[in-house]
Amino acid sequence: MGRCERLETMALEEGQWKTRVACAWNPFLGFSILCLIFAFVGVNRLSGKEVRVWTSAEGRTLEASLVEAGEREVTLRLSSGQEAILPLSRLSPSDREYIQQVSKRGGGRNLEPLPLETALSDSVEVKGGPRVFRSPHFEFRNDRDVSPAFVAEAARIYEGTLAALHAIPHGLELAPPEGQTHFRGRFLDETDFDMIAEERMGTLPGQRVVGLYLSDSKELLVPYSSLGAKQLGSRMTLRKSSDTSTLVHEIVHQVMHDWLPVFPTWFSEGLAEYLASIPNQNGRFMFRYAERGLKTRLEDRHGVSGRVIQGVTRPSRYFEGIVSASLTDAGAGLGGDREVAGSIQTDSVGGAGGTQDMRFDTWNGTLAEYRDAMLYLYFFMHLAEPEQAGDQVGRYLRAVDIALGETDQIRKEVGAFEKQRVFYNKAVRAYNEELGEFRKAVEAYNRKVVEYNDQVKSGVPLEKRIRVGEIPKLPVAPERPEMAESIRLLVDDRRSINLVHFVQSRSLEVLLDGRSLRQLDDAFRRAFAELGWDIQFR
Questions:
Q1: pLDDT tens for residues 177-188?
Q2: Positions in the chain short of pLDDT 50
């Protein structure tokens, strides 16, 4: 920071030395950061009465029960009966996961084990018509007349897929987007669908889009042809034997809309492909036959014959950036050689079926990538912890949700810091102006000091000497605002914060489960080998 220093010089005045002031001029430095940030829904308030051992991020422990947890703080009741309020960010990952487990989100949904088969009524209630219909959680529109069989089967698939997603032990609330009472879908002719798909996604060489979730309008588009729907007289009809896996795949994207911006694309597409492979009957998903469904999907969609799967990408590839990236030194070097008054900028990240512009995402949308993503999800759902099917994916989903709540806190802290920064830079400009005036006053004062000392040497009587006046007062420099530690550690060398990377760093370690990247690849290949599959990495 620039400042004026007072230096002592020797001058004679009635046997005393006169002070001379020297001014060292430097511009006072302002600063700013660029933050790539997007708003998410914060963590809901929680409660639990279990007395347990809590661990801080530093490793300290205490026994207490959970009273309440908000977006920033958690209230614990100690064994003494007193209550303590702690920052949520100070708790260990396992404690944050516990809070999510006892969450009341989703109407108090318990974290039950993955069922062998989901439950769904044989007859799903559907209202409306003739082209707009509503089941309990979905609204679907048709651009053509449809038969009662079409409506009934579509409703079963919609509601059944939602029930299957709820069956994964995560405890999250899977609700329609804010402002909507139902998830929205639309069935349309192939020609109209292709026009929309090309406008939104462009032409994909060698590929055809068979379903599309529009993240901006929160609407699911599926052409009748992707369902195997047939024209019967003047209406479209759908049979129970029709292949509805495309609809299942896209419903997964639709229902997981709150988390799509931060899911790695392999996870988003893998989860959709995995559920699309699960055999279902009348909307009931039979997880007991997951291996059979995987085999059928590999044969029918990916042309895998026999028990050898060639050219599989190592799962570790999608963890490399997260594991190797370091956040600890990201805040070094903020500032510059001049005051910067630019404001923090915000942006949002999203896509039709996953994060398309993530820092570490290398998804190209090939059929092989969809196959591999399905294999990854099957591994994490059934093979990583075979005695607790679905638990690891459920823990990952909870970790993502908790991290999203933390991004809301980061966003607030960045906003508060931005206000301080703007005020500080304004004060810097005023201070530098005062510093300029101070320098002029110092120069004038020092000229008088020189003249006064010359008069002393020349024997000029005291009453005839020049009046030097008081020493100029140094302006008070504005206090530089301190950046919160939680922000400083996240700021990279480009003065930005990548919250997608933050969420992934906090959550993907759940899937690694303490394994190194090589151990992950070995466990993946070995687990499928035990099922009789020969995974050959490329």
A1: 888 899 999 999
A2: 1-48, 104-110, 324-360
Report how far Cα 378 is from the mean position of its chain's Cα atoms. 23
Q: Does 475 sit behind a cis peptide bond, omega within 30 degrees of 0 on the bond before it?
A: no
Task: Round to whole Å and give the CA distance between 161 and 276.
Answer: 9
pLDDT at residue 94, as a whole number: 80
The reported pLDDT for the residue numbered 341 is 32
pTM over 0.85: no
Pairing of strands 219-223, 280-281: unpaired
Q: What is the pLDDT of residue 203?
A: 63
Handedness of CA 76, 77, 78, 84 (dihedral sign): positive
Encoding tokens for residue 384? 């990583």
How far is residue 498 CA from its own chain's centroid? 9
Say which residue the tokens 């010089």 belong to. 9
Type and span of the H or E element at 529: helix 517-530
Residue 224 CA to residue 230 CA, distance in Å, equals 8
SS3 209: coil
- d(CA 145, CA 471) in angstroms, rounded, equals 91
Q: CB–CB of 282/242 below 8 Å?
A: no
Whole-angstrom distance, CA of residue 99 vs CA of residue 395: 12
Question: What residue type is 452 in one-letter code?
Answer: Y
The reported pLDDT for the residue numbered 21 is 45
CA dist., res. 157 & res. 245, Å (int): 9
Spatial separation of the C-alpha atoms in residues 331 and 495, rounded to whole Å: 8
Confidence (pLDDT) at 336: 27
pLDDT for the residue numbered 32:
35
Cα–Cα distance, 257 to 174 (Å, whole number) = 9
pLDDT in tens, 38-67: 333 333 333 345 678 888 877 888 888 887
pLDDT of 255: 93
Angle between helices 367-378 and 517-530 in degrees, nearest 10:
80
CA–centroid distance for 9 within its chain = 61
Give CA torsion, residues 34, 36, 41, 43, to 10 deg: -70
Tokens of 172: 């999250």
At 405, the amino acid letter reads G
pLDDT of the residue at 288: 95
- Dihedral over alpha carbons 328, 331, 333, 337 (to 10 degrees): 180
Instruction: Quote the DSSP letter at residue 318.
Output: G
Report the 10 Å Cβ neighbour count for 405: 21
Burial of 181 (0-12, 13-18, 19+ CB in 10 A): exposed
Q: At what angle do helices 391-457 and 93-101 cross, to 10 degrees?
A: 130
Nearest-5° angle of CA 238, CA 203, CA 199? Answer: 75
Half-sphere exposure of 469 toward its Cβ, with a 13 Å CA cutoff? 12
Q: Report pLDDT for 136.
A: 93
